[in-house]
Amino acid sequence: MAMSSLARRKSSLLLSKSLCNSSDAVKYSLSLTSFSRGFASGSGDDNDVVVIGGGPGGYVAAIKAAQLGLKTTCIEKRGALGGTCLNVGCIPSKALLHSSHMYHEALHSFANHGVKFPSVEVDLPAMMAQKDKAVTNLTRGIEGLFKKNKVNYVKGYGKFISPSEVSVDTLEGENTVVKGKNIIVATGSDVKSLPGITIDEKRIVSSTGALALSEIPKKLIVIGAGYIGLEMGSVWGRLGSEVTVVEFAADIVPTMDSEIRKQFQRTLEKQKMKFMLKTKVVSVDTSGNGVKLTLEPAAGGEQSTLEADVVLVSAGRTPFTSGLGLDKIGVETDKVGRIIVNERFSTNVQGVYAIGDVIPGPMLAHKAEEDGVACVEFIAGKEGHVDYDMVPGVVYTHPEVAYVGKTEEQVKALGVDYRVGKFPFLANSRAKAIDDAEGLVKILAEKESDKILGVHIMSPNAGELIHEAVLALQYGASSEDIARTCHAHPTMSEALKEAAMATYDKPIHI
To answer: Which residues does the annotation say bind FAD (predicted)?
Structure first.
């Protein structure tokens, strides 16, 4: 007789306890178990909470603090709330990804569905205008939320003059001092530069410049095969650019499950994106009309050249902490500039906290939001919680790739016996009906208990489908729990149910 879900969970708990003498087992147990945090307070006057930075972490922290009855001020140097994510990151990139996908579909797929046009063309200014409109409306929306929740908003560059005082050079050219009992650093991250490469946002661009090109480059080189590089490469590739991705490492998106990663790369290659992996950029020449890169194998060897109209530098991001006066008040940072915090987001300086991209953990907007909520809950004397093992990652190409929990490589490294269940979207009725069936769902579960350890999805709208898996991991569900949950038909989410069936037993439709 099959073991019940409750019995499996009890078995999983016993397994974790019985392996406590092994360091690997302890890491495994901790990775699947949440931790609790206590209360931390600070001293000062005027505001209860001051937040430096108005990005996803900062503005969410400010709103939550105000909702908890704390007098709150948010300081933002950009003059527009939402940080990198809303202004020059997540939101404008998704706007362009959607617009470029619509164009690509109209050009290549609509005729298959009986929708035909005499011709299709790109109106790049209109596409950019739609993107800018979305950004403007959302930044104004956050300002409206500040007013609604009575958050004081100061536009300017803030830096510490003491653990309870922030000097702000305002955008109006004045200076003011904002005082607070508790101060949260939420200044986010900046583009990571590469030696010998100067970003001018014209021919050599960061993600910011890639979101605002005035014309479609004939040839685009992307340095870095992470989330941002692949997404922006997809945008311009769909619009007609010849895209080549140069990556120093052996693989694209190193945080991704290797099986999914390999299939994902094959899909992007079918979309005519070229990859040069294990390749190092030696030098950049901008003396001509275009840009010429000198390349060599990462391990050393014969050099080659590659030319393009535009080069996108997308080699990651680095914490933005310069000029904040952290050294002045003695806040500790690590060797890469991240602020060191405890499980309550408190730094070594009483009353000073940090969240989001400036502390260790995934550099993701939704992670920063969770940090912000938890941090102010601690400040307010409540309990907060963020489990970084439960933070989903999404690459918003087409198809999308989304994942949460452990990769198969991580599970193997932990020495845990496990099962794998897979289901291809080629066998999903909704995907076949809409003629968009590339991808699969892959589930990893502990063999004895059937507890889900990780879920990986490559499909259209995988970023939406993944949240059922996030919730399942959050509540310690088994693959059988998902398999025995009724899913509407026909939907893409049925592929997750079938993959769960394949994990603990057998799927129906393959």
So the answer is: 94, 158, 187-189, 357, 363-366
Locate tokens 């059988």: which residue? 480
Do 372 and 406 share a domain, yes or no? no
Tell me, yes or no, whether 225 and 148 share the same domain. Answer: no
> Which of 35, 37, 31 is closest to 374 using CA atoms?
37
CA-to-CA distance for 312 and 380, rounded, in angstroms? 43
Annotated binding-site residue? 356: no
- Cα separation, 462 vs 445, in Å, equals 20
Same domain flag for 344 and 293: no
In sequence order, the 6+-apart residues with CB closer than 8 A to the CB of 47 are 71, 72, 73, 152, 178, 179, 180, 181
Gap between the Cα atoms of 225 and 312, Å rounded = 11
Which member of 108, 113, 489, 509 is catalytic? Answer: 489
* CB of 147 closer than 8 Å to CB of 316: no
Residue 12 within a domain: no
For residues 126 and 146, state if they share a domain: yes
* Dihedrals phi, psi of 497, to nearest 5 degrees: -60, -45
In this structure, the answer to whether residues 95 and 165 fall within a common structural domain is yes
Q: Is residue 10 part of a domain?
A: no
Q: What is the mean pLDDT of residues 164-186?
A: 97
Q: How far apart are the first and last CA of the chain?
A: 24
Q: State whether 53 and 182 are in the same domain.
A: yes
The CA R_g of the chain, rounded to the nearest whole Å, is: 24
Beta strands in 163-309 (DSSP E): 165-170, 175-185, 189-191, 204-205, 219-223, 242-246, 274-276, 279-285, 291-297, 304-308
Tell me, what's the pLDDT at 8?
Answer: 44
Q: What is the pLDDT of residues 209-228, one digit of tens each?
A: 999 999 999 999 999 999 99
Taking the complete model, does pTM exceed 0.70, yes or no? yes
Structural domain includes residue 85: yes
Decide if 467 is catalytic.
Answer: no
The one-letter amino acid at 482? I
The answer to the question of whether 232 is labelled as a binding residue is no
Range of the structural domain that residue 476 is part of: 399-504
Q: Is 398 annotated as a binding residue?
A: no
Is-cis flag, bond preceding 125, omega within 30?
no
Task: Decide if 386 is inside a domain.
Answer: no
Do residues 267 and 134 both lie within one domain? no
Which CATH number belongs to the domain containing residue 487 in this structure?
3.30.390.30
* 162 annotated ligand binder: no
* Residue 316 assigned as binding residue: yes
Output the domain CATH number for residue 304: 3.50.50.60
- What is the rounded CA–CA span in Å between residue 465 and residue 487? 12
What does the pLDDT read at residue 176?
97
Distance of alpha carbon 396 from alpha carbon 153, whole angstroms: 32
How would you class 391 by CB atoms within 10 Å of its CB: exposed for 0-12, middle for 13-18, buried for 19 or more?
Answer: middle
Domain count, the chain: 3
